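Long-time lurker, first post.

We've been arguing in lab meeting about whether magnesium ion would sit comfortably in this protein at all. Half the group thinks yes, half thinks no, and nobody has a model to point at. So I'm putting the question to the forum: if I give you the sequence and the SMILES, can you give me back a predicted structure of the complex? Inputs are below. Any interpretation is welcome too.
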Amino acid sequence: MFLDRDGVLNRTFLRDGVTRPPSALSELELLPGVPDALGRLKDAGYLLIVVTNQPDVARGTQSRERVEEMHAWLRERLPLDAVRACYHDGSDGCACRKPRPGLLLEEAARLGVDLSRSVMVGDRGTDVHAGRAAGCATILVGTPDPGGRDARPDRVAADLAEAVGLILGDDREEDEDMNEPVPSVAALRVKIFADGADAASMIELGRRSHIAGFTTNPTLMRKAGVVDYRAFAREVLAAVPDRPISFEVLADELPEMERQAREIASWGPNVYVKIPVTNTRRETTSPLVRRLAGEGVHVNVTAVFTLDQVRAVAEDLARGPHSYVSVFAGRIADTGRDPAPLMARAVELLRPYPQEELIWASPRELLNVFQADAIGCHVITATSDVLAKLGLVGKDLDDFSLDTVKMFHDDAQKADFRL
Ligand SMILES: [Mg+2]
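Top reply:
Settle the argument with this. Predicted structure of the protein with magnesium ion, as tokens:
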């Protein structure tokens, strides 16, 4: 760690509009936080080397003895390994006067310092230039001279204490994206079900091993232009015979709902019958769900929004085979409520029923996959736009930044915008 002296370690004085160093020991005063900051660096294993220009000696307005007296004082109070001064005034073309790197290079050679892992901290452009010329990182502190920022230091800090914070990584908590593990699809425990109604894309997705199942619903089927429900189901089931796939009943009256449920269940062993938690008159489907589950039908109770509903459905499915409870987390989020705590509680409510699994339904963004995973939710459904983003998981953010800049640039070019 190379340290400038005046304005970094000790106070300077403004005389006739010019910043001046202390002229004698009586004026030498450490800046706040300096002993602690240097103590932290020392504890972290840094060598602390002061490199300072003291041209007043060559100019005859200061004696070398007085400057050395001040350096002895500094060495008594601070854990410094070396204090090196250039006493020239620049007229003799010496190699040691900053912005030249002579003092840094000499001390690096003497003490075996790796300059590429060193930092120069100063309050002037000349400090930054000297540090860079020596191959160090540079931090500008204090009240820099006009040339300071023009010198393009690597970092800028209010004072030495803040500079030391930057070096020792105190800012890492704020930049936590730098330290978090890179997300990966392979590490997910939550099962991803594709939500869709377009037979061709469902068949295509069926070839992908990371799609663990499928769900569909009348709204998606209508959007996809499905006209023959049975034919659509047959086509998809022929392509996906081995993974759970849910089809929803269409009726609103409970007896007709039950008839449809039995027909849908007959389509295949991997078929789950989606039953909404109520009909359109708010009448509960609980007795129907209970009966179907009791007869061995795989049920997926859907359009569940509240924990009371989760409790009731969990009990309805308790004596049945493997089944799903679909809680519409995304739609809950659409009301301004964070669905994650509710979903976490739903996971707990289903824990006594090992054959029942919770589905995080209607996700709104890719992040929901990771939220569902974090709370131990068993399944998340994902529409094709969310699935498409799986390819971005873990992407380097600097690369993503560049891609985004390129996209803006390309579109501006293509549009032939002019200013
Ligand atoms: Mg200075």
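For your lab meeting: The chain has a mean pLDDT of 93. Residues 4, 6-8, 122-124 surround magnesium ion (CB under 6 Å). Whichever side wins, do check it experimentally.
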